[in-house]
Specification:
CATH class: Alpha Beta
CATH topology: Nucleoside Triphosphate Pyrophosphohydrolase
Number of strands: 10
Low-confidence stretches: none
Structural class: mainly beta
Order of helices and strands: EEEHEEEEEHEEH
Largest sheet: 8 strands, mixed
Radius of gyration: 15 Å
Strand content: 35-45%
Shape: globular
CATH superfamily: Nucleoside Triphosphate Pyrophosphohydrolase
Bound molecules: N6-Methyladenosine 5'-triphosphate
Helix content: 10-25%
């Protein structure tokens, strides 16, 4: 992108901390169809807002339990997403991966599970930013992404990948 960001990312702070989890096993990723909340109707990973006093890791495990009745094993933080939004609160999202889980993935009032081949991820049904980091993350790269949205459209973005990206995270 050529235009400058209108956000001062050094001092930017999100109103809403949130999480996402992507369990990957046998060349497939466990996605959800989201039935309520922000991004209702879209495909995403399980996740949600961090409760007061909760760590990102505690949140992502709780959200997987609530949304799909699974407990991810050995979750690993892979990235941060900083979203400056136009009509909903700004979001600071912590993204995790896991290779296994306890329990049986179950549809709930919040989410329908969708095991999806990694090369068949339906990016057209997801938030627009996902195509800018999910393929790289599924290939094992850590990342830091900054996005300005107007409504549901990106009008500025910057992505960094690898160990240097992890050094930019606001939270470990
Ligand atoms: C703007 N581009 C975006 N790209 C990818 N993912 C995005 C996103 N914007 C929000 N998200 C995710 O959407 C969930 C919202 O949280 P949400 O489901 O509303 O929270 P929670 O389950 O706590 O709320 P309810 O109990 O339904 O009120 C949460 O995982 C968050 O990371």
């Amino acid at each position: 992108m050529t235009k400058a960001s209108s956000v001062n990312w050094q001092t930017w702070q999100a109103e809403m901390p949130a999480t996402l989890m992507f369990v990957v096993r046998d060349g497939k990723v466990l996605l959800i169809e989201k039935l309520r909340g922000i991004g209702k109707g879209k495909v995403n990973g399980p996740g949600g807002k961090i409760d007061p006093g909760e760590t990102p890791l505690e949140c992502v495990v709780r959200e997987c339990q609530e949304e799909l009745h699974i407990t991810p094993k050995n979750p690993l933080k892979m990235g941060e997403l900083w979203f400056a939004m136009s009509d909903i609160p700004d979001i600071h999202c912590h993204v995790f991966m896991a290779t296994d889980y306890d329990g049986v993935e179950t549809a709930t009032e919040e989410a329908v599970p969708m095991w999806t081949a990694i090369d068949e991820v339906p990016y057209e049904r997801m938030w627009e930013d996902d195509a800018h980091w999910l393929p790289q993350m599924l290939a094992g790269q850590m990342f830091n992404g900054r996005f300005e949205f107007t409504g549901e459209k990106i009008d500025w973005l910057e992505m960094h990948f690898g160990d240097a990206a992890a050094a930019e995270w606001k939270h470990v």
